[in-house]
Amino acid sequence: MKSTEEVHVLTPSRPSHQTSMAPIRTHLRIMRRVSPCVTLLCLLLVGYGWMDIAARRTGDGSEEWGYVEVRPKAHMFWWFYGSPNRVEDPSKPWPVVLWLQGGPGASGVGIGNFEEIGPLDTYLKPRESTWLQKADLLFVDNPVGTGYSFVEDSKLFVKTDEEAATDLCTLLMEIFNRNETLQKSPLYIVAESYGGKYAVTLALSVLKATEAGKLKLQLGGVALGDSWISPEDFVFSWAPLLKDVSRLDDNGVKKCDSVTEKIRQQLRSGQYTEATASWSELEGLISTISNSVDFYNFLLDSGMDPVSMEAGELTPGVSMKRYARYLSYLKTSASNAGDLDTLMNGSVKKKLQIIPANFTWGEQSDSVFSSLQGDFMKPRIEEVDELLAKGVNVTIYNGQLDLICATKGTEAWVEKLKWEGLETFLSMERTPLYCGTESATKGFKRSYKNLHFYWILGAGHFVPVDQPCVSLDMVTAITQSPAST
Ligand SMILES: *[C@@H]1O[C@H](CO)[C@@H](O)[C@H](O)[C@H]1NC(C)=O
Ligand SMILES: *[C@@H]1O[C@H](CO)[C@@H](O)[C@H](O)[C@H]1NC(C)=O
Ligand SMILES: *[C@@H]1O[C@H](CO)[C@@H](O)[C@H](O)[C@H]1NC(C)=O
Ligand SMILES: *[C@@H]1O[C@H](CO)[C@@H](O)[C@H](O)[C@H]1NC(C)=O
């Protein structure tokens, strides 16, 4: 981030707002008023000549975004939203949530922001359950090559979670080191799916960098939502779970067993790339014998998704794309309206002004996935243990209906932790969760010392989409947000 320029045609200032909806209206106004400036900027931003003005903010300062060149020719895109409810009270610090999407190669700026927790949905309508009510939100397209992030040389895609964490740490230095307000705000790393592997690796890098004085921020905690922390445990959970809910029979389980056994052998002998191929084979097999169960919600068929008709192949690239399509399926639109690709390659790209004109959102994401195939099946349980031992708050949450990162698999890896509090944690009773005015049980929670586990009922892989009310309560508790309810 070399400099920050105001976009002068935007609303220069706004009165303080009473409700969280007001800045969203401002945001919509911005989207309409931005075009004269775009024309001017286009003259300035030919090719990659934009790098000396790599960040922008809205006139009211509530949003800021930009590129950080995390390594030469590797450009990471970030988008920060300041909460309209922020209170400055030293005894109750205002939290910042960094959202890490999975994939690998799925865009947090697109999916997490517009489909899950950001202030606007894909129709650019306000989202009632936005987490912005409770915290500032920082979205990133991580690793480079994801979403709007890009590399100018294909050798620069990351090959390990560790490399991704190093790039993310560089990004955080650019954003936090020059802003004292943000340094007083604890950072909560909240991850989904593969993002959990980056989250724990990043948290350890952050602690190292802050101890060395290179990074100025306070780590508030880590939250692992339906996270791919132990691939082996998830792979082994699939067939028994599907058998228990009648989606597979004994014959199907036997077929799966031969592939899972192969995966176990490959992991034991360190053949991680081969294990990634077998993982893909197992997904394909399960898809066939279950008649296309949806991996993000085992009560559904993936065929229910009108745009994923070709998803039967389930190569890693294809299943990664299904991730975004699953969310599109939840919509009922016959046109392109509300389609995430159209939005991100259209009006959002225009608003942001700094995305290279010839670059399409998500165009390098398959390469991001393939580049990580040697690390994809490696577990990160030890990293969770390290964080617990260092006293970092670790929250795990899981949707009841998820298959790909099933609760059964999550519980299996949690039981492998070496953390001294584990035995007590496992023996404790759970607290039931309710939400709003509903009397139905929405989930359960168990906390001991710095480990917290939420079981979210009625949710698949995308917990904030399926259960927005209880998710918002959960993020309020995780971040100890001072926002009044
Ligand atoms: C976009 O344009 C730049 C400069 O003109 C070029 O170097 C780059 O390869 C192009 N990128 C794509 C994805 O076409
Ligand atoms: C620092 O962050 C705060 C909180 O989001 C923001 O209001 C402020 O404008 C930022 N300051 C600079 C210099 O970017
Ligand atoms: C993205 O938008 C550009 C400009 O409108 C268009 O030419 C291109 O085909 C779009 N790409 C995709 C993948 O939709
Ligand atoms: C961890 O979270 C709890 C609330 O759940 C809080 O009381 C405690 O201060 C947090 N610990 C750290 C080290 O942030």
From TrEMBL:
Gene Ontology cellular-component terms for this entry are: extracellular region
Q: Where primarily located? A: secreted
What InterPro entries does this protein map onto? Answer: AB_hydrolase_fold, Peptidase_S10, Ser_caboxypep_ser_AS
Q: Report the EC code(s) recorded for this entry.
A: 3.4.16.-
- Record keywords: Carboxypeptidase, Glycoprotein, Hydrolase, Membrane, Protease, Secreted, Signal, Transmembrane, Transmembrane helix
Location comes to:
Secreted
A GO BP entry: proteolysis
Report TM segments: 34-51
A single GO molecular function term of this UniProt record: serine-type carboxypeptidase activity
Q: Which family does it belong to?
A: Belongs to the peptidase S10 family.
Q: What is this protein called?
A: Carboxypeptidase
